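Review form for a predicted model. The reviewer records the input and the model, then writes brief findings.
Reviewer: anonymous (R2)
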Amino acid sequence: MQDEFYLQRKCCKTNKRTLKENGNKPNINNLDFMRIWDIPTEKLCRNHLLGEHSELHAIWLIITQDKKGYFHHPEVNRWKGKLKALYLKHDEIANEMKTRGYKHNSPLNIVFAIGKDKQDELINSVDEQIKILGNKKCGRKL
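Model under review:
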């Protein structure tokens, strides 16, 4: 719990009021932080699609280059041992970016695409993720 509290305060969009409302205990299941969404990429608005692409590259580098800063972050943890799945997710995102007319010039090195080819661990259910995105009012119909 100590690590989760540190991570929430350090790298998640959590303010003191939210922590006070939760009795200074983080609720890791309701965090809105670094995230690779588990919903189809075509449902994401422009900002969430490009943000997810950026986050995916960050997670890839943290795992493949053994970066320490966010190594124990919940979103990073769920991709450990699943770099093949992360690689495939990147392909999905890159294809959606191209479909929308965006340029994509940041391929991942396939040499590191090892482990499971499916993500089977969720921080929030798909329904919860859709609700989180819906509450952002970014204009994309989910």
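Findings: The chain has two domains: 1-32, 45-142.
Further findings: The two ends are 33 Å apart (CA to CA).
Recommendation: see findings above.
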